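Quick one, probably user error.
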């Protein structure tokens, strides 16, 4: 058996994309999201990453009441899974090709200020929140997170006592995040989430993951995930390279080729089997707290 530390499994429960129409198991209401968080924890996840949706339409939402209900339900449960709230919404924009060039939010989304993007984190004080260190093409839109926004968000997150998960999608994002840590804008307690195979970010191959890892600060804690069919290969790649892993219906709807996942726990259980089959230990929530919140 390997002596490497236990592997933390994060579960990204629902995301912001229009995925419920492709797999009805994607949770939408606060109760569904919280229930799947608890089930994922029982299957082996020690961190749950949370977006919220309008329970009537299933579309992405930033309504505080939805975040609050999900967090309260998880905290009232009998599991001590770490809660990780997203700060990603409010960043997607389109730029028309005809003059005048005016930036606009994409349909069904609103551009938000840095302070608005972290307001729910400041009020609810989860264990962790994401911080997207990424400006990039995202489908036909642009995902925009300039450095001045990141500094302002990091200041508020740090004041709330919340650990930051730095989501990086390409090599330059890893370099920027490392620079923000080196200059004190982001604390050294932050850890990295390598987001692989996302159009148009870095591909999810072993050599690319290893190079992205090399760009991180010495001793940095990190996790990785791949989207779609790259989800489970990335579990193995990240674990072998010494990182932690993420799975969930935000990133992938299938537990096997052509077989839709029944829920998030279905994906977590498979990730746990892969980790154990490699000879590694799956981290408990207490072990994840000691690793990520130290």
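Nope, works fine. Designed sequence:
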């Amino acid at each position: 058996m390997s002596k490497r530390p236990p592997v933390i499994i994060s579960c990204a429960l629902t995301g912001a994309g229009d995925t419920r129409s492709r797999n009805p198991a994607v949770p939408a209401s606060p109760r569904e999201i919280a229930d799947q968080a608890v089930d994922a924890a029982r299957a082996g996840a020690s961190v749950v990453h949370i977006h919220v949706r309008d329970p009537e339409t299933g579309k992405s939402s930033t309504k505080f009441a939805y975040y609050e209900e999900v967090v309260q339900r998880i905290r009232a449960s009998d599991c001590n899974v770490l809660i990780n709230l997203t700060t990603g919404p409010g960043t997607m924009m389109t730029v028309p090709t005809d003059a005048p060039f005016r930036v606009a939010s994409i349909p069904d989304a609103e551009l938000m200020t840095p302070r608005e993007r972290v307001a729910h984190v400041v009020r609810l004080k989860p264990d962790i929140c994401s911080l997207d260190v990424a400006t990039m093409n995202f489908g036909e839109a642009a995902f925009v997170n300039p450095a001045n926004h990141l500094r302002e968000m990091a200041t508020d997150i740090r004041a709330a006592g919340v650990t930051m998960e730095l989501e990086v999608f390409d090599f330059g994002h890893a370099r920027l995040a490392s620079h923000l840590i080196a200059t004190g804008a982001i604390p050294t307690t932050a850890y990295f989430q390598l987001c692989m195979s996302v159009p148009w970010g870095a591909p999810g191959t072993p050599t690319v993951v290893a190079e992205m890892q090399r760009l991180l600060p010495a001793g940095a804690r990190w996790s990785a995930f791949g989207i779609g069919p790259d989800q489970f290969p990335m579990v193995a790649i990240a674990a072998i390279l010494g990182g932690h892993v993420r799975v969930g219906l935000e990133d992938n709807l299938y537990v096997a080729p052509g077989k839709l996942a029944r829920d998030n726990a279905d994906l977590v259980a498979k990730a746990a089997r892969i980790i154990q089959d490699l000879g590694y230990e799956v981290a408990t929530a207490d072990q994840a707290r000691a690793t990520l919140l130290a």
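The mean pLDDT is 95.
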